[in-house]
Amino acid sequence: MGQIKIIKPGLLTTVQDLGRYGYQQYGVTVSGVMDHVSARLANALVENDEGEGLLEITMQGPEIEFLEDMVIAITGGDLQPWLNGQPIAMARSMLVQKGDKLTFKGMKSGCRSYIAFSGGIDVPVLMGSKSTFTRGKIGGYEGRALKAGDILKVGEPKEPFSSLVDREIYENLYEYNAVVELRVVLGPQEEAFTEAGRRTFFSNEYTVTNECDRMGYRLEGETIEHKDGGDIISDGISMGAIQIPSHGKPIIMMADRQTTGGYTKIGNVITVDLPKAAQVKPGDKIVFKEITLEEAHQLLKGLEDKITILKQQCSRKYGKQEKEVKRTRKFHLKINGKPYNVVVEELK
Amino acid sequence: MYDKTKYLAAGDQALVMEFGNSISEEINSKIRSMTAAIEGQNIKGIVELVPTYRSLMIHYDALQVNYSELLESLKALEEQLGSIELPAPQVVEIPTLYGGDYGPDIENVAKHNQMTEGEVIRVHTSKEYLIYMLGFTPGFPYLGGMDESIATPRLETPRTKITAGSVGIAGGQTGIYPIDSPGGWQLIGRTPIRLYDPEREPAILLKAGNYIVFKSIGEKEYQEIEKAVKKGTYQYKSYPKKEEGGQHGTN
């Protein structure tokens, strides 16, 4: 089992996976990665399950020392990763060795990257997830953002290092610009706004303010007119919901959003555009574009097909045969007092 | 309650069934039935359900289920609701030590309503409170049905830390803090049981659509329960709610 040591934590570095689902009815926030596509691809690059725990880093990256050899991959916003003082490629798996140091030079595009480690980050699974929810002090590493001196364990890789390295994602699915178009499906409370209010929302540019974190983004811009105020009887909030309280300025609800809320929601960012939303930072501009639910579902299927192809491409590196595993069994063996983890895969 | 339930989009992976535009036991009962009906059906692609005051949010996986088919199954299920047998809601007992250091504001509540502390306790323990929904923090119950005679405004200056388990009153509402948090509620007592314990299965004690009842306990019993809870040996007490003239009955 490998280990990493946090030398400097960076601005906000947390352990996340795809989220803590199934407990929203009890008031437990979903959390999880902000950019689900980058996180899934990072895990795919090192042959982890998509939902494996990884690090989400924000704006100013951490400094990490590897205490053992391991394979890593970095995806998402480009914070310019360097290894031992040399720039390294994004979206490509690589072997790092004991004593190597990973640093980040600074934001080039987007603001969140994902570092996946072959074998995944080994933290307790709490209510079905490894995600950190800092406000609730639960999950991840001791329920908090990482600090200098923390040592995290990394699990066993599924394959030998030699077959895990130099895999690549060949296509950038997203570009992260300072002006971002987010497509929106109307509802559930679009009726709470006047015709003019809806027009204002879709025809103006909104600026991301400094009140911008994993919970949500407050935006500044033209006031959106309600028919009769912005309060409703509290109901559920999904990822990407655009709340507009009575002051008429939008708030986009993100991964650490509360499960329920009492403000009108004019619409919801479509799933396909959430990775773009995840990479915006204070000062960036957002324009909203209305699309139908049917279109959103079509786009989602299209994205999923692309992800499947990219994943296949990256695991075919080295002319490896596609293998279909019927059954996997894991053993812990001791031979001459030395422990071994053995995985037996039954192939079709 | 609306004549016709509204099906509203909440993005491309969730929809909302909105049953009305008010807070009522009748609407809540319908939400509880619908939640149970969906849970019993195992509809393909449904990820999770979030019941709230007047609506039910249904998270789905759009890659697994076609939206129009999902709508059809839900509408069909809604039409059969009347014929679905539903067990009576549970009433969960919350042992509570009132007054003293555990409920420092009980005097405020008594004074404000011109009654004795004993009367405040009697009124507060006399009702079964409907859990409309959980939210705000993990396991925080939004309760209905508090007797107006003990209603008291919030503290003018909120406390920076309220101990988990504290039982309070804010205006016409009563509630329990599941975790240490800041807040302005008038604290009248504290329960030794944990509404939220991430290490326990289930982590959250309460469920929307069920009820709670407060039971006054003494200091000795408080300490015994606290110990048992810590050891994981405490037996949580609950019983099926008795029908009240059928009006708010579930079926």
UniProtKB/TrEMBL annotation, chain A:
Protein name per its UniProtKB record: Biotin-dependent carboxylase uncharacterized domain-containing protein
InterPro entries, alphabetized: CT_A_B, Cyclophilin-like_dom_sf, PxpC
Signal peptide: none
Keyword Nuclease: no
Keywords: ATP-binding, Hydrolase, Nucleotide-binding
Pfam families noted in UniProt: CT_A_B
Highest rank taxon of the organism: Bacteria
GO molecular function: ATP binding; hydrolase activity
Keyword Lipid metabolism found: no
Domain called Carboxyltransferase: residue spans: 25-307
PANTHER family attached to this UniProt entry: 5-OXOPROLINASE SUBUNIT C
From TrEMBL, chain B:
Sorted UniProt keywords: ATP-binding, Hydrolase, Nucleotide-binding
UniProt entry tagged with the keyword Hydrolase: yes
InterPro entries registered for this protein in UniProt: CT_C_D (IPR003833), Cyclophilin-like_dom_sf (IPR029000), PxpB (IPR010016)
Keyword Nucleotide-binding: yes
SUPFAM superfamilies the UniProt entry points to: Cyclophilin-like, PH0987 N-terminal domain-like
Pfam family, one: CT_C_D
Coiled-coil intervals, chain numbering: none
Example of a GO MF term: hydrolase activity
Residue ranges occupied by any Carboxyltransferase domain in the UniProt entry: 5-206
Transmembrane segments: none
Signal peptide as annotated in the record: none
Protein name: Sensor histidine kinase inhibitor, KipI family
